[in-house]
Write a structure and sequence with these properties.
The chain contains 14 helices and twelve strands. By secondary structure, the protein is of the alpha+beta class. It has a five-stranded antiparallel sheet, with helices on both faces. A five-stranded antiparallel sheet has the order 9-8-12-11-10. The chain has a two-stranded antiparallel sheet with strand order 1-2.
């Protein structure tokens, strides 16, 4: 187990579920990871790297550089995208050491950065997030030994992300604001926002305690991803935002509109099953619950015994931390 300042990372996991803020978590993670891979800055993000990560922790990044780095990643001005090496045998790469990394080297030089180690956090169940580590210019660059050491941290970091997401109650403590809409222009900057969207931004920033530039970079990324085709959906956990939220982007002429709202059942269910470890069969049972089916009806529809259905229900309630079907359905209703 990696240790953070003399205490197990397990203690940090417990703290993460009880209001630890963005800066505190980032600093503690940095101390923990430094024991295995010394670095000057760290970013740990949760979510599928083929899309935008839905929550993250940063430490040691100068704000202008952090925003510029994210913008470069989102707009394709980057030598290695996370999704490109997610399937590699060792899903990690060192950026900034190859002379072909022209844009990255230029960006790094302007901010005193020497190299960056990037790694996708992947296990047999899928991809859970990404890790980025920086070293300052003039210091030793990351090498193969550090890549191997970082790869050995994967199980612990995946455990941190999963426990962070699942440590808080699934149901929000207060009613959700009404959906809000942002309009993002061709320059990837927010042009306008409804009053509800402003309320959402205020609510989210207050809960997560992240600096404003991370939000700007996030919406710029949604804008860039939408202009590349598709309609990206990002679902964020209650641990970061007080409730499970969804940001859905659509192209509208030269602009991109982003709807921010409490995640609907359809939006939430895939993330819920992944983070809480629900099986395919348990997901089917949850789907039947959403249709207000009783245990006997679920058993008949899925060709199971009532006893087996009740076993699945108990497992679902235990994994998600709810006290029964009503509380689960409340959580799924946003």
């Amino acid at each position: 187990m990696i240790r953070s300042g003399g205490r197990p990372l397990r203690e940090l996991l417990a703290a993460a579920g009880h209001g630890v803020d963005w800066a505190e978590a980032g600093a503690a993670l940095s101390r923990a990871v430094s024991a295995a891979v010394p670095h000057d800055a760290i970013r740990l993000s949760g979510g599928e790297p083929g899309a935008l990560c839905s929550f993250s922790f940063w430490h040691g990044y100068e704000p202008d550089f952090g925003q510029a780095l994210l913008n470069a990643c989102h707009t394709g001005e980057d030598p290695h995208r996370w999704a490109e090496f997610a399937a590699w045998p060792v899903p990690a790469v060192v950026v900034g050491v190859d002379r072909r990394h022209t844009a990255a080297r230029r960006l790094f030089a302007g901010h005193g950065v020497g190299s960056e180690l990037r790694m996708v956090l992947r296990d047999a169940r899928g991809v859970w997030g990404t890790l980025g580590l920086l070293r300052s210019a003039g210091g030793r660059q990351f090498g193969e030994a550090e890549v191997a050491a970082a790869a050995r941290l994967t199980p612990t970091l995946v455990a941190f992300l999963r426990e962070y997401v699942t440590a808080v109650p699934l149901c929000p403590a207060s009613p959700s604001p009404a959906p809000g809409v942002l309009v993002v222009g061709p320059d990837h900057r927010i042009r306008s926002a409804t009053a509800n969207a402003v309320d959402w931004q205020r609510c989210l920033s207050a809960r997560h305690a992240a600096p404003p530039w991370t939000g700007k970079a996030f919406f710029a990324g949604l804008s860039a991803a939408t202009r590349s085709g598709g309609s990206p959906l990002v679902v964020g956990p209650a641990a970061s935002y007080g409730r499970w939220i969804a940001c859905q982007a659509e192209r509208l002429g030269d602009d991109v509109t982003v709807v921010i709202q409490a995640a609907t059942a359809a939006q939430l269910l895939p993330s819920l099953c992944a983070w809480y470890g629900l099986t395919d069969r348990e997901r089917q049972v949850v789907g039947q619950l959403r249709e207000a089916a009783a245990a006997k009806q679920i058993a008949r529809r899925l060709e199971l015994s009532v006893h087996t259905v009740n076993d699945h229900l108990r497992a679902i309630f235990r994994k998600t931390g709810v006290h029964g079907r009503d509380e689960l359905l409340t959580a799924l209703s946003g």
